[in-house]
TrEMBL record, chain A:
<dbReference type="InterPro" id="IPR039723">
    <property type="entry name" value="Vps71/ZNHIT1"/>
</dbReference>
<protein>
    <recommendedName>
        <fullName>HIT-type domain-containing protein</fullName>
    </recommendedName>
</protein>
<keyword id="KW-0862">Zinc</keyword>
<dbReference type="InterPro" id="IPR007529">
    <property type="entry name" value="Znf_HIT"/>
</dbReference>
<dbReference type="GO" id="GO:0006338">
    <property type="term" value="P:chromatin remodeling"/>
</dbReference>
<feature type="domain" description="HIT-type">
    <location>
        <begin position="177"/>
        <end position="209"/>
    </location>
</feature>
<dbReference type="GO" id="GO:0008270">
    <property type="term" value="F:zinc ion binding"/>
</dbReference>
<feature type="region of interest" description="Disordered">
    <location>
        <begin position="33"/>
        <end position="53"/>
    </location>
</feature>
<dbReference type="Pfam" id="PF04438">
    <property type="entry name" value="zf-HIT"/>
</dbReference>
TrEMBL record, chain B:
<comment type="function">
    <text>Component of the SWR1 complex which mediates the ATP-dependent exchange of histone H2A for the H2A variant HZT1 leading to transcriptional regulation of selected genes by chromatin remodeling. Involved in chromosome stability.</text>
</comment>
<dbReference type="GO" id="GO:0005634">
    <property type="term" value="C:nucleus"/>
</dbReference>
<dbReference type="InterPro" id="IPR043129">
    <property type="entry name" value="ATPase_NBD"/>
</dbReference>
<feature type="region of interest" description="Disordered">
    <location>
        <begin position="421"/>
        <end position="446"/>
    </location>
</feature>
<dbReference type="InterPro" id="IPR004000">
    <property type="entry name" value="Actin"/>
</dbReference>
<comment type="similarity">
    <text>Belongs to the actin family. ARP6 subfamily.</text>
</comment>
<comment type="subunit">
    <text>Component of the SWR1 chromatin remodeling complex.</text>
</comment>
<dbReference type="Pfam" id="PF00022">
    <property type="entry name" value="Actin"/>
</dbReference>
<feature type="compositionally biased region" description="Basic and acidic residues">
    <location>
        <begin position="421"/>
        <end position="439"/>
    </location>
</feature>
Length: 213, 446
């Protein structure tokens, strides 16, 4: 029997005033399978979403979803053609600046770090910890009406990359069954994966479960 | 002789580029894949060479634009050289030294990347004149009043639109970008780290977990995405429908017949044919069945938290942006919302956007949302029309001569509209005209 846990419909996460979408998963709509997790396990698991381990899981998945290729591959430039065409196209000499730029292997993250070292106000003060919750980033939430308005009216200089990022959503979060994509009402007590019911839970246990604890 | 002007919207997925004509139109804009692709037989395909390829199986991509910003010039130069310096190219630049380059960048680009780009443009390509400008900031030069009223655009030059709230959703990310009197309102810029690539990878992850292992097939999956995905206007309802109904009656489920690279037969989407239903489906075809993935994937644009990303979706971000704008400006922005970028083309995007925004906005506010005919090329078109604004261009563009004489910083200040050493009077005049325009506008408001 898999270790399962029904997630309580959390009090206090009702949608904020005026929000149109309150698509909470039907938390207790399904009969409760027996839990063999015991009290200790249950407490441990109900905090699972806020653990650093869970946050690492999420971060690693997000960085996978941002990749250009599934595997890291090096794709070299095609070999230089010889003869007239190649020489018509490429200059024989480049400036020192250009040579330096072409040889640079810096990634975007490197450039961003340089920028923030030079100009600390561009840095987001938001800590990227799991406990961060919905705490607002004060950097970009100064209400507009306190900014300079009439005289030389403007929205100020560019915010910089880190401070321009969206604040977290105010909506309650949703979870989905990893097997079929329906609401993820249950959570695997071993690895934290979500599933919708007994059938998908069984498939998960047999084929997918990556024991986490 | 007036120099030719080349407009380049240098996107992560495609370069949108073409020469400026008297009346710019979408048809002058070419789409060049901004990548070096590597096929499984280990050939490297640069830019448009990708179009000659018939086998996209296992193809890998190197993209010079990372997270929406031009990072790798080694690869970009290879693509630019073939695009702009080869006589066969439709955008062949025969004489950069007699050409003005207008180049777009994403908002909030790191300075070191801007430095690199500016140096390459002046020192390697030796363009005569150059203006680097934030992509969505060119949108107000489009004829937005005509767009909202469904009229054909007035030929340029026109002055920038009074107000625009731009939702620019591209390959790397999505921006909410606000302009008033053509000027960006920088504090209201918001970025969501969800774009077309993220959606493709999410679809790839879902189908690989559920049906076919497609982890090495980003090209195919992006085609599947374009063929079947839509934004739901009733997310929980559609999720229920997918769960409760057995396949044959399910109105959402679709088949994607996978391409056969051996025979050259392309992939395509069709209504679902159940396997056991006899001869309708040929036996040898391989079919990917898609259900709730069709709408759960683009849903990320509205709910990034569905994959654990601690960011708000496009509509919530519009409200975050509006908070940063003076209250009296908010109504005019809500009435001038423009959707651009490739994801704006996903069926249902505009309907869902309007549906979510309406109840969140003040009930007396008029909301107008427009999607241009070609959202992918709309920034290019805006940049082209901006280039027709001679007075603006004269103020902002930097010349190679200025670069040689006054250096990089001078040119960057000029392009950013800041005071420059030798041209203090430019800035003064600027403020005066701006103030006039503002005052006119304020009177109209009241
Ligand atoms: Zn399920
Ligand atoms: Zn598990």
């Amino acid at each position: 029997m898999p270790t399962v846990e029904v997630l309580p419909s959390k009090p206090g996460v009702s949608a904020g005033a005026g929000w149109a979408y309150t698509t909470l998963p039907p938390a207790n709509a399904v009969s409760v399978p027996a839990s063999t997790g015991g009290r200790g396990a249950r407490n441990r698991h109900s905090n699972f979403e806020n653990t650093a381990a869970r946050q690492r899981q999420i971060n690693s998945r997000i960085s996978d979803l941002e990749k250009d290729n599934y595997r890291d591959v090096h794709i070299p430039l095609p070999k230089k053609e010889s003869g007239a065409r190649a020489s018509a196209r490429s200059k024989t000499t480049s400036t020192q600046n250009v040579r330096r730029i072409l040889l640079s292997q810096k990634t975007f993250v490197n450039h961003l770090a340089d920028e923030e070292a030079l100009n600390p106000t561009f840095r987001s003060r938001r800590a990227s910890t799991a406990e961060e919750g919905d705490e607002m980033d004060l950097d970009n939430t100064t209400p507009a009406d306190e900014c300079a308005l009439e005289d030389g009216e403007s929205g100020g200089p560019p915010l910089g990359y880190a401070r321009a990022v969206s604040r977290p959503s105010r909506r309650p979060s949703r979870t989905f069954c990893e097997i079929c994509g329906y609401w993820g009402t249950y959570r695997c007590g071993k690895c934290g994966a979500r599933y919708c019911g007994l059938e998908c839970g069984g498939v998960h246990q047999e084929t997918r479960c990556q024991k986490f604890f | 002789m007036p120099p030719r002007t080349l407009i380049v919207d240098n996107g992560a997925y495609t370069i949108k580029t073409g020469f400026l004509k008297v009346i710019p139109s979408y048809s002058d804009c070419h789409l060049i894949p901004n990548c070096i692709a590597r096929s499984r037989d280990r050939r490297s395909l640069v830019g448009t060479q990708l179009e000659t390829c018939r086998d996209f199986g296992g193809m890998a991509f190197r993209r010079p634009v990372e997270k929406g910003y031009l990072v790798n010039w080694e690869a970009e130069k290879e693509i630019w050289d073939r695009t702009f310096l080869e006589p066969e190219s439709p955008v062949y630049v025969d004489a950069p030294s007699a050409t003005t380059l207008v180049l777009t960048e994403a908002p909030n680009a790191p300075l070191s990347l801007q430095n690199n780009t500016d140096q390459i443009v002046f020192e390697e390509y030796e363009f005569a004149e150059y203006l680097r400008y934030v992509g969505p900031a060119t949108i107000p030069w489009n004829d937005l009043p005509a767009l909202f009223s469904g009229q054909p655009p007035t030929p340029p030059p026109t002055k920038p639109a009074e107000a625009a709230l731009i939702v620019d959703t591209g390959f790397s990310h999505t921006h909410i970008y606000t302009t008033l009197l053509g000027q960006p309102w920088n504090s209201a810029t918001r970025r969501i780290d969800i774009g077309g690539k993220f959606l493709t990878n999410y679809l790839k992850e879902l189908v690989s977990l559920r049906t076919w292992n497609m982890m090495e097939e980003p090209y195919l999956i992006s085609q599947v995405k374009e063929a079947v995905c839509f934004v739901s206007t009733d997310f929980s309802g559609d999720l229920e429908r997918c769960k409760r109904l057995r396949l044959p009656q399910n109105p959402i489920v679709r088949d994607y017949v996978l391409p056969d690279y051996n025979t050259g037969k392309g992939g395509f989407a069709r209504n679902h044919i159940p396997k056991q239903r006899g001869p309708a489906a040929p036996d040898d075809e391989q079919v990917m069945v898609l259900g709730n993935e069709r709408f759960a994937v683009p849903e990320l644009l509205f709910n990034p938290a569905d994959v654990g990303l601690k960011q708000a979706g496009v509509v919530e971000c519009v409200l975050q942006a509006l908070e940063m704008v003076p209250e009296r400006m908010r109504p005019v922005l809500l009435a001038n919302i423009v959707l651009t970028g490739g994801n704006a083309n996903i069926p249902g995007f505009q309907q869902r956007f309007e549906q979510e925004l309406r109840p969140l906005a003040p009930s007396e506010a008029a909301i107008r949302v427009a999607k241009p005919h070609d959202p992918e090329k709309f920034v290019w078109l805006g940049a082209a029309r901006m280039a027709c604004d001679e007075e603006f261009m004269k103020r902002r563009k930097a010349t190679r001569k200025e670069y040689m004489e006054h250096g990089l910083l001078y040119c960057q200040k000029k392009m950013a509209g800041e005071d420059v050493r030798a041209g203090g009077e430019v800035a003064v005049k600027d403020t005066a005209t701006e103030r006039d325009r503002r005052e006119n506008r304020t009177h109209r408001r009241r």
